[in-house]
Amino acid sequence: MSLFKKVLVFLCVMIPALGEAATVWSSCQTVVAVQNQMADVNGIAVYFSPGISGCGTGSYSLSQIIVGQQGVTSSNINSILATVLAAQLSGVRVAIQYDPSTASSYGSDVAIGGNIASGIC
Fold first, then answer.
1. Is residue 115 part of a domain?
2. Omega prior to 50 cis, within 30 of 0
3. Domain encompassing residue 107
4. Helices (H), the chain
């Protein structure tokens, strides 16, 4: 394989990876509030206790779930909203997959009762 082809293959593999931030799973959290921000930022804010270090500002720990971030679409955000509302109403703890590289901690997947990656709550 020529050097050009090797470089081209490398770029085709690596460039998409640069566009997605690495995500991590939180420890088990209790959903204490859910804020519908669809009119403002096309998403929702989920507030947690005891909190996720580095997420949110001030005294509140939160993750924003925004259409266009971390694979969230206008088609799946209502399912995510239903999941976090069910967790808040039932008091069952959750784990959330989020991007720790920003204060908004953009979230995507929510696991009621935790999962293998975060631990069972």
1. yes
2. yes
3. 45-121
4. 3-19, 38-41, 77-90
Q: Fill in the amino acid letter for 108.
A: S
Residue 34 counted as domain residue: no
Q: What would the two tokens of residue 95 be?
A: 């784990």
Q: Is 32 a member of any domain? A: no
The token pair that represents 57 in the structure block? 């500002």
CB contact burial 58-74 (16+ within 10 A = b; e otherwise): eeebbbbbbeebbebee
Note the pTM of the prediction, 2 decimals.
0.78
How many folded domains does the chain comprise? Answer: 1
pLDDT tens-digit series, residues 21-66: 699 999 999 999 999 999 999 999 999 999 898 888 767 799 999 9
- CA distances (Å), origin 73, targets 2, 24, 44, 80: 40, 19, 12, 10
Residue 102 falls inside a structural domain = yes
Give the integer Cα–Cα distance in Å for 93 and 31.
Answer: 7
Q: How many CB atoms neighbour CB 12 within 10 A?
A: 9
